[in-house]
Backbone:
């Protein structure tokens, strides 16, 4: 039986990291569950006059190292345990990438493609009306995640401002539009970070990036910017997919033309000159690097057994099951875990928060340069720890992150 409960899976990794570091069990007890979680029901008057109720959660996992930080996800499959696991990962990735922030996450169980723009705006504002007391500049700083974007952050920020006498609230949300205090490079940051780490992993594997072939599952914000950045560096992205299916071009896709096609048609499918393939076929393609950039639990034991890539870079949160990881370990595949591969977004969120608080904005090169340096440093640190201790990169990253969070908790007197 495949272990697909994300919270239980991450708790098991935490337990092992706490034991390997020789830390007391209390550290595990504190980290195993969020400090608190608020559940609400968002009420939206639909265009047809019906009022529909959408369950929503925000989890505050840990703030020993700084304010709670993490995105808001809109997805029909979201549930309380998933939000908790995603909040744990935010604490860990913020420690790995070394920003002074803790971990939080929100989810709303809704299919946003089913909503009109007016209904979506109502939902975003309703979220803030329910969760306003939970967030704050020094308390909890939300951002976009799956199916949320700059426009949704703008509506949320506006609603918060209206509730708080138009206070200066830019720094409460990150991932905002540039016109509303957003940072240069925030939109691209997660994908850029993934691509930077993918190149670093290829080099460690003795693969020349320019000769490598990459497949990306998912063409949302993260998958798109990962593909763009890799292609811009002369690396062949041969296959990509989205919820409707995948496409293959063995010599490498023209990513900019593909982005224009997606803008026109809403999907990667039917991009001229490509062969169609399924999401599962994409994951098991004969390529060097596979980048899962969609949702959780995609690389299962059976998928892992059929994979031919030698490097897997987790752009999504939680795409590999524990059984999938074990199979990839057995076969010597280098898996760069989510908490090392995808903190580029939250890293630039942190830079956005800093810029908002200073009221001073940096040029794109400054932000992108800091991002690249932070991603490379985090990857190298984790890679070398893994070598030193003979573990996979996930175990090394958990040890690094848990060690840092535990030190902050000890200094605060939490245990
Ligand atoms: N949702 C992104 C993540 O999972 C970014 C979170 C943030 O910027 O706070 O890392």
Residues:
């Amino acid at each position: 039986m495949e272990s697909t409960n994300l919270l239980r899976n991450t708790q098991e990794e935490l337990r092992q990291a706490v034991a390997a570091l020789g830390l007391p069990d209390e550290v595990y007890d504190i980290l195993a569950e969020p400090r608190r979680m608020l559940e609400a029901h968002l009420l939206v008057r639909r265009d047809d006059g019906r009022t529909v109720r959408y369950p929503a959660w925000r989890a505050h996992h840990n703030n020993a190292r700084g304010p709670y930080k993490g995105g808001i996800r809109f997805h029909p499959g979201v549930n309380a345990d998933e939000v908790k696991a995603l909040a744990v990962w935010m604490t860990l990735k913020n420690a790995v990438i070394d920003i002074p922030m803790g971990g939080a996450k929100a989810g709303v169980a809704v299919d946003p493609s089913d909503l009109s723009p007016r209904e979506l705006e109502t939902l975003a504002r309703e979220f803030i009306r329910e969760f306003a007391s939970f967030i704050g500049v020094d308390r909890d700083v939300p951002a976009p995640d799956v199916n949320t974007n700059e426009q949704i952050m703008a509506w949320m920020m506006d609603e918060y401002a209206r509730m708080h006498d138009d206070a200066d609230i830019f720094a409460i949300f990150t991932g905002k539009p540039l016109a509303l205090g957003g940072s240069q490079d925030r939109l691209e940051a997660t994908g850029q970070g993934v691509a930077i780490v993918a190149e670093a992993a290829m080099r460690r594997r003795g693969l020349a990036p320019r000769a490598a072939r990459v497949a990306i599952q998912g063409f949302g914000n993260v998958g798109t910017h990962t593909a763009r950045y890799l292609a811009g560096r002369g690396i062949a992205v041969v296959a990509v997919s989205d919820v409707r299916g995948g496409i293959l071009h063995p010599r490498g896709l023209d990513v900019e033309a593909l982005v224009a096609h997606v803008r026109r048609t809403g999907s990667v499918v039917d991009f001229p000159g490509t062969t169609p393939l399924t999401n599962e076929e994409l994951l098991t393609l004969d390529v060097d690097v596979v980048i899962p950039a969609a949702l959780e639990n995609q690389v299962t034991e059976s998928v892992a057994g059929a994979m031919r890539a030698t490097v897997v870079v987790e752009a999504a949160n939680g795409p590999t099951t524990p059984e999938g990881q074990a199979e990839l370990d057995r076969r010597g595949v280098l898996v760069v875990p989510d908490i090392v591969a995808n903190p580029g977004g939250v890293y630039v969120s942190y830079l956005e928060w800093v810029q908002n608080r200073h009221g001073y904005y940096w040029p794109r090169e400054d932000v992108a340069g800091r991002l690249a340096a932070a991603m490379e440093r985090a990857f190298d640190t984790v890679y070398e720890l893994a070598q030193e201790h003979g573990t996979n990169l996930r175990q090394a990253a958990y040890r690094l992150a848990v060690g840092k969070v535990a030190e902050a908790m000890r200094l605060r007197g939490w245990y």
Remarks:
- The radius of gyration is 20 Å.
- The pocket of glutamic acid is lined by residues 69-71, 143, 145, 174-175, 317, 342, 345-346, 349 (CB under 6 Å).
